[in-house]
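Changelog note: in this version the structure field was regenerated for every chain. One regenerated record is shown below for reference.
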Amino acid sequence: MDSGYKKRLFDFDKISVQLLTPFPLDITEGLVLKDSFLSISPVANNQVNYKVGLGGEVLVSENFNQVHILQIEFIPTAPHIVEIDLLKKAKTQFGILIQNNSAPKYKGTASECRILEKPKIDIGTSGFGDFTYKILMTDYVDVFIP
């Protein structure tokens, strides 16, 4: 009996995380394979900081709903740790694209991102621990695609 229902499965090979600027770089390789290796959380309106200039001008995002924190976790031997670390040290703003081409299809992007926290370094009997980066995305927009 055909119910017309099409079974859709999540396929890890079809998810990608790419830095868009200052240079295109796919950072998917090296993500930690566990239950939650990537999370995107909205920032509450009361946690968004304002900047006030000498003339009294105020700098604030027009769309509070677009401010998000991306938390992403890499194994210590991930090939792009060096580039991500350089972005933090240079305090460079960059863009990011997150997409999943399996179920559910999803795409999210931001052009104004900064690394908030460099991960702590844990060294134990099994070597280095995983690296967790926190990235501020001030203009994140996303969509689930049918």
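Spot check on this record: The longest helix spans residues 81-90. The CA atoms of residues 32 and 74 lie 5 Å apart.
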